[in-house]
Amino acid sequence: MMEDKPFSYGKIFAIGTGFFALTLVWTFYNAYMPLILGDYIESRAIRGAIMGLDNLLAVILIPIIGAWSDKVDTRIGNRLPFIVVGMPVAALFFILIPYGATITLWVLLIVDIVFLLAMTIYRAPVIALMPDHTPSEKRSTANGIINLMGGIGALIALFGLSNLFGIDRGYPFIVAGLLLFLSFIFLYFAVDRKPPYVGSSTDELEETQASRSFLHGFAQLKKPDFRGHLLILIAIFLYFIGYAGLEAQFTVYAVEYLHMDASTAGFTLGFFSLAFVIFALPAGLLGSKLGKVPIMLIGLVLLPLIFISIPSLPLLSSIIPGINEVTLLQLALFVGGISWALINVQAYPLVADLGGKNRIGFFTGLYYLFSMASSIIAPGLLGLLMDVFSHPALFYGAAATFLIAFFFLKKGSQIIRKKTLSNQEPFTTIS
Predict the structure, then answer these.
(1) Helix 170-190 / helix 9-37 crossing angle, nearest 10 deg
(2) Number of domains the chain is built from
């Protein structure tokens, strides 16, 4: 019987260490790899294109690896073989990144590619560990624990490891790599070799949903009934360009344009993540009470206003006595993180609602397809704007994506609401 199978929240926290280390490493990589690439590559666009490589590899390879880990059967189970290979190799090559950068660009790129491939090998299996050890009725709570630990990892990366970067470039990579390796050791001894709820977890992976939607989704979106849905998905694609591009290029702006220490730049970016973690739950409650679309629209107006104001902060700090531009930038990013919570917390539930109960998987795939596609091109695109129009174009370009997304989201929701009221909408209402 299902209820007789063992379950432990302690084991979920143990599994969460894998997501903690994964998020910590990715967050630090996204913040500081563009600066390291800057030793050899001046163009922000080229650096951004390299930063988009991890998302491209994810969409292509992770669904294959996830399906493979569903089917493989070894003495140590079906997930651990991939984790045994991927996590230690990723930890080692992450530690080697700053040292490879001191040799030549090609050595750095080889180290980087091996690191990205190793991360790709273990990501799907480590994420699948949670549903393998959790009955379906407890997966929402378990997923909340996993994501909380991921959020803590992101904050430690930006508030803790950033300070080490200012002391020595190699230190934070060593610490993060060791944490990733320790997480591997912990997982190896903590997880069950034959988990009680193991099944096919591939369908739950973001990258799998994205890949399948790429193959099967566009034919559906061409139909007139899906016009409103398509506009909403385009809105998500657009504002994720602004978000992903800003995440990858912020430290470049702060270091190269504001002449900020690299450690201070990463620490400053942490205020955006901190605000999101704090206000994610309140944003979700607001969306439930007032409607997902209205709350998203508020965020899509507030965030570009904040972005547009950021290039003027140095001038403002010279006018206001006692406040420096770094403090103002940290405050602006904190308010920006609140605005991002208003947008992003509502987005996936909104898209999942678009198809009703029978099409949740289909629209989940479309959500991940549109959001991950933007993450592939965003760093290079906003980097190109910085190359052509100077560094502040990062914020003007990001703001433009959010403002354009506002109109697509508003128009798409109006179309769906109108069809619903006239009984033409075959799926569900949105709010």
Answers:
(1) 160
(2) 2
The token duo for 103 is 């040799």
Burial class (CB in 10 A: 0-12, 13-18, 19+), 193: exposed
Please, what is the Cα angle at 207 between 202 and 209, to 5 degrees? 70
Percent of the chain residues topping a pLDDT of 70? 85
Contacts of 194 (CB under 8 A, 6+ apart): 77
What are the C-alpha distances in Å from 268 to residues 30, 158, 160, 162, 329?
Answer: 14, 8, 11, 9, 7
Q: 63 pLDDT band (50/70/90 cuts)?
A: low
Specify whether 84 is located in the same domain as 197: yes
Distance CA(119)–CA(137), nearest Å, equals 30
pLDDT over 70 at 429, yes or no: no
Which two structure tokens, joined as six digits, stand for 351? 């898209």
Query: With the CA atoms of 275, 163, 375 and 81 taken in that order, what torsion angle do they form, in degrees rounded to the nearest 10?
Result: -110
Question: In this structure, what CATH number is given to the domain that contains residue 369?
Answer: 1.20.1250.20
Q: How far is CA 234 from CA 125, 133, 180, 320, 375, in A?
A: 30, 36, 36, 40, 13
Q: Which of 204, 237, 265 is the last residue of a domain?
A: 204
- Checking if the pLDDT of 379 tops 60, the result is yes
Q: How far apart are CA 43 and CA 38, in angstroms?
A: 8
Residue 1 clears pLDDT 50, i.e. is over it: no
CA nearest 212: which of 67, 406, 102? 67
Domain end: 150, 181, 204, which one? 204
Domain span including residue 404: 207-424
